């Protein structure tokens, strides 16, 4: 089946599964798309399982400003044809937390060059690019990937900077990565607590809830 025919079939299934209440709720929460069918994730996964991974199909789906198309693109994109320059194009196109989180989970974490991209994106000043860097780092840390001393120092510096950022999603994604890092071992937990005990962190009201959540998760290791 040609790519256009595959997309037509996918859109037909999405329309049959659409949920107007869920779509409206997402809009009210700030998740704005050109089109949002409100299809629940389990159903999107069912649709994805009906199709083989296909580079051309995934690229075409990503270009559609449709919530479900972008989610499916991350599920249907083969890793071996997803080159670093394409990853940069995709991440620059991400405009909300849902797509950032799901694309990191469904695709980015499996890329052979994922660690390099995590550090590249963490250092970016654009909100969702930076957030994807931390979310990707969190996925890798959760799988047990360890950093050398130089990478660790850079990660902690970037995380501290993001925690002090006025941008909520940068702070939130950095806190997720810090938590995964701290959960790896006692030494990492101590380093995270040292960061969270810094005066500038305690003085920042926006960080308090994130701080308490991280501490609660990792302090049993101390």
From TrEMBL:
SUPFAM superfamilies in alphabetical order: ARM repeat
Source species of the chain: Bacteroides sedimenti
Listed Gene3D superfamilies: 1.25.10.90
Name of the protein in question: Peptidase
Record InterPro entries: ARM-type_fold, DNA_alkylation
Superkingdom of the organism of origin: Bacteria
Lineage, broadest ranks: Bacteria, Pseudomonadati, Bacteroidota, Bacteroidia, Bacteroidales
């Amino acid at each position: 089946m040609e790519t256009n025919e595959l997309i037509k079939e996918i859109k037909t299934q999405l329309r049959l599964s659409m949920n107007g209440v869920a779509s409206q709720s997402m809009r009210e929460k700030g998740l704005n798309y050109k089109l949002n069918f409100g299809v629940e994730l389990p159903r999107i996964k069912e649709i994805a399982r009906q199709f083989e991974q296909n580079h051309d199909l995934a690229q075409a789906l990503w270009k559609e400003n449709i919530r479900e198309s972008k989610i499916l693109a991350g599920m249907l994109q083969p890793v071996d044809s997803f080159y670093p320059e394409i990853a940069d194009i995709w991440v620059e196109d991400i405009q909300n937390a849902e797509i950032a989180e799901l694309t990191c989970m469904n695709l980015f974490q499996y890329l052979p060059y994922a660690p390099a991209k995590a550090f590249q994106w963490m250092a970016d000043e654009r909100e969702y690019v930076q957030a994807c860097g931390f979310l990707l780092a969190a996925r890798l840390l959760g799988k047990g990937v360890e950093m050398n001393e130089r990478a660790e120092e850079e990660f902690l510096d970037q995380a501290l900077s993001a925690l002090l950022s006025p941008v909520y999603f940068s702070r939130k994604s950095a806190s997720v990565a810090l938590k995964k890092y701290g959960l790896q071992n006692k030494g990492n937990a101590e380093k995270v607590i040292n960061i969270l005990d810094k005066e500038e962190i305690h003085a920042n009201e926006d960080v308090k809830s994130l701080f308490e959540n991280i501490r609660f998760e990792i302090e049993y290791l101390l």
